[in-house]
Amino acid sequence: MIAYRDFYYPLNVFMHILTHEEGDVAYLHYALFESSDESIGAAQEHSTELLFSRLPAPPASILEAGIGLGTTLARLTRGGYDAEGITPDEKQIAMVRAEYGDALRVHCAPLETFAANRTYDVLLFQESSQYIEANRLFERARELALRVIVLDEFALRPVDFEGALHSRERFLAAASAHGFEVVEEIDLSEKAAPTIDYFIARLPRYREALIADLGITNEQVDDLIASGARYRGLYREGTYGYRFLDLRT
After folding, report:
1. Which of 91, 94, 126, 159 is the most buried (most CB within 10 A)?
2. What is the pLDDT of residues 158-197, one digit of tens each?
3. Helices 71-78/40-54 angle, 10° precision
4. How far apart are CA 70 and CA 76, in angstroms?
5. How many angstroms separate the CA atoms of 49 and 181, rounded?
6. Assessment of whether the complete model's pTM goes beyond 0.90
7. DSSP for residue 61
8. Which residues pair with 247 in a beta bridge?
9. For residue range 128-168, what is the model confidence (pLDDT) as tens digits?
10. Which residue intervals of 40-124 are DSSP H helices?
């Protein structure tokens, strides 16, 4: 069983629910639902399938910025890619090493200060670009790779509140300023948004188990339910959205 207790709140909450609902947790990223009756695990695989359909053939070199549980990095490595992963989260590094040993090349470092000493064919962000200031991201990207692939959420309309998502407009402006242009963009918002519904529906059901298992409070569960509803509303009105982006110099 995944050691969800070792992760930070609220990620430990989502992992707890996934573990008990699905029996395992392979990914930390959004699912892309093709139909309302498929499992969240199957829908998460659609994201991976989309990613791999756009990658150059192995043995292309790939740097994954943000490794999650290491599932994608492991698949890249098994598939013959020259793949490495980075994350500033020591807990993720520890979990990946416990699961895969030395089979995966992972480094505990943020993109901003990662000492690569090489370049890559692709720099990959799967819901990790939102944690990096856009100009700094593309400044480093220009040093590391000629191609950037992103699967992530963005603010599609102006927003001004604490914790708001990165603006897609400003993100693409930063890309352009550093010599990257979009060669493909796919709007995946409708497929991604049901992921939020999945957790909103299950949080009340797991309230007591979450409090007992993770030591969180009743108020924290209420906050997650309320914030989830607000978040879903931002998707529904088109303020937030989910995109696949392929950017190249």
Report:
1. 126
2. 999 999 999 999 999 999 999 999 999 999 999 999 999 9
3. 50
4. 10
5. 23
6. yes
7. E
8. 148, 182
9. 999 999 999 999 999 999 999 999 999 999 999 999 999 99
10. 40-54, 71-78, 90-100
